[in-house]
Amino acid sequence: MAKEAEKNREQFATTGRSRKGEPLVWLTAAGLAIGVTMALGLFLLILVKGAATFWPKRIELFELQNGETREIIAGYVTQQQSRKNSEGADVREIQLFQGNKDLNGETFRYVDVGSIIKRSSPKNLLLIERLTYGPAIGTAVAVETGDKRTVASSPDFIPELNKILETSENLRRKVLHIERKEIGKVSMEMEELGRSEKAGRITSAAAVERRARLQTEFDTLQKKATRLDATMAASSLTYIVADGRESTLPADQLLGVFAPNQAGFLERLGESLRRVWHFLKEDPREANTEGGVFPAIFGTVTMTLVMSFFVTPFGVIAAIYLREYAKQGLMVRIVRICVNNLAGVPSIVFGVFGLAFFVYFVGANVDRNFFPEKLPTPTFGTPGILWASLTLALLTLPVVIVATEEALSAVPRGVREAALACGASKWQAIQRVVLPASLPGILTGVILAMARGAGEVAPLMIVGVVKLAPSLPIDDVAPFIHAERKFMHLGFHIYDLGFQSPDAEAAKPFVYATALLLIVVVVTLNLAAIIIRNRLRKRFAVSSF
Fold first, then answer.
1. Measured between alpha carbons, how far is 470 from 283 in angstroms, rounded to an integer?
2. Rg of the chain's alpha carbons, rounded to an integer?
3. One fold for both 53-139+254-281 and 294-539?
4. Edge-to-edge strand order for the sheet containing 69-84?
């Protein structure tokens, strides 16, 4: 009996101790659940708002009565709100996107719900996408092509309008190619000629002759572009806005026309996909509140890949030395503590260091030694995508070092000893046995580094990112890779739209759309790295793990 009582007391004491820790376990689980719920909620908000940016809304016609003033406006509802008026009563308002910024002076307008006497959705209302001043809303009157005028009631109106849109798109693409590629190439040749003449590599007479030839080519290309613009402007669309004013839009400003009130689900879905495609492939315009984000996508992906190219070998080499070659002692422990502390340094500090070291020191010396003919105009002594990538490589270097060390330490000791017993040197054992077995863990560190680097904004604002950079760091103009160029970034694009845009209401939908796109880009890069990691894990699997 005494032994059984003692056993019960011990069991009770053990159970009591275990129960004391249960509240902490449940508290941890609750915190994790709340964190996951908040993250999923934020992602769903961005997903819904970002997808809604591209979905075409139906346009309504509102008849308003304010006292003795009667007004008619057209637009679609973007949000609703309630406020207190001067008498303290609740007033419900709706925000309308009315477009026609060139005529109305503002794109959005708040309307008191109580002043609305009639709402309708006429089938003939059009949403007209323009190159400047944002979209317009109105009713088509006619299209003109040269001496031919086709009214909206004619059965040939839609085919004629589609023909104008297609022709204008082709001509606009040709003009863009002339301005960016051909004229840009001539301008670069003229700059190179000036540097060659300054450095004495070409005689003055030859320089004058070649400059005259380049100037003639430049003028010819400009005239060609002007003729194409004039050809586009010869066609036009005439429309009437809701209040009766008539406006004529030249075809060189016309990007698209859509009748949302006539469209069914499939047509609206097709228009939505068209908007997504243009958002992905076009350059920004209208202070980044219109157009697309292709330069920002290209800059983000390029910078992340270049950053990974630099951080991976340096991080792996440093980890191999610390784990395999360095004598374990006080100095190595201090180095590891410093590496771990670097991971907690604010990113803006790395940006300041990158500006001082890479731009003002390394870049200035590169200009002085390799591009003296361009001075005082800097080539590499100014922020650019190369310096931004190196700065973020330093920022994410501790992550790769720590992950690589953990991966190296996870390789069983017996595998190393077996390689050495077979006559391999230490480096051969590391190169052919340890590193292949550690590759999945190393790629885990690279994935974490890419995820952090792709989302950083603060250091990039100092070392290379800009509001608008239509010239890409990589193109088909020699020398094809322009590491000195500034670039756009999706993270900075979100900041610019949200806090620096002159039209905050117009920029709000693009903030959600760009945020959703940044998440997709980061997830895509990470998934690609994860797939590679899993394949390497299967390929270099060690049976003794």
1. 7
2. 32
3. no
4. 108-112, 90-97, 69-84, 60-66, 116-120
User: Can you tell me whether residue 200 is helix, strand or coil?
Assistant: coil
DSSP state of 124: T
C-alpha span between 179 and 185 (Å, rounded):
9
pLDDT in tens, 157-186: 888 888 888 888 898 888 888 888 888 788
Collapsing DSSP states into helix, strand and coil, what is residue 485? coil
Amino acid occupying residue 138: G
Q: Of 230, 266, 236, 271, nearest to 250 (Cα)?
A: 236
pLDDT of 200-214, one tens digit each?
Answer: 777 777 778 888 888
- 53-139+254-281 carries CATH number 2.30.30: yes
What tokens appear for 443 in the block?
A: 């790629």
pTM value?
0.84
The pair of three-digit structure tokens given for residue 397, joined into one six-digit string? 């270097």
Separation in Å, CA 309 to CA 64, 303, 312, 316, 367: 61, 10, 6, 12, 24
Burial 281-302 (b: 16+ CB within 10 A, else e): eebbebbbbbbbbbbbbbbbeb
Q: 294-539: CATH homologous superfamily?
A: MetI-like (1.10.3720.10)
